[in-house]
Amino acid sequence: MDKNVVVFIVPIVMFICTAAVIFGLRYMSNKERMAMIEKGMEIGSSKAPSQPYKNLKWGLLLIGAGLGLFLAFVLDNSVFNNADQWGNKENEPIYFSLIAIFGGLGLFVSYLIEKKEALTK
């Protein structure tokens, strides 16, 4: 295939696919509402439950991820002594693993705080 043909066809295909997805979602939403009306259900009664600890959870997750990234940087530059080798990718797994570990610890602390608050109520 010629490169000019691909450059011309790809945006058209992407537009058609996006329009089809939007139309399909709207169509299915309408069918769901019609089924709810037929069964006598209230349409506007399905509200999302409040999430009072959402900000706490996100805050602790980001704090944990930041601590993990900082600790990985400190370990990489001091313990593994790679401060002078910027192109060295030998210790990349440390960054990912410590971000995941400390992010998980942040979520666990959030869970413990939520559980403690639920038990005191």
Can you put this structure into words, describing what you see?
- Keywords: Membrane, Transmembrane, Transmembrane helix.
- It holds the Pfam family DUF6249.
- InterPro entries: DUF6249.
- This is DUF6249 domain-containing protein.
- It comes from Pedobacter cryophilus.
- The termini are far apart.
- 75% of the residues lie in helices and 0% in strands.
- The protein has two domains: 45 residues; 67 residues.
- The chain is mainly α.
- The protein is flat and about 60 Å long.
- The chain contains three helices and no strands.
- What integer value in Å does the Rg equal? 25 Å
Number of strands: 0
Mean pLDDT across residues:
86
User: What is the percentage of strand-forming residues?
Assistant: under 5%
Dominant shape: flat
User: What's the main sheet like?
Assistant: none
Distance between the termini: 67 Å
In N-to-C order, the SSE pattern is: HHH
Query: How many structural domains are formed by the residues?
Result: 2
* Structural class assignment: mainly alpha
Number of helices, where a helix is a run of at least 4 consecutive DSSP H or I residues: 3
Q: Which parts are unreliable, with pLDDT below 50 for 5 consecutive residues or more?
A: none
Helix content: over 70%
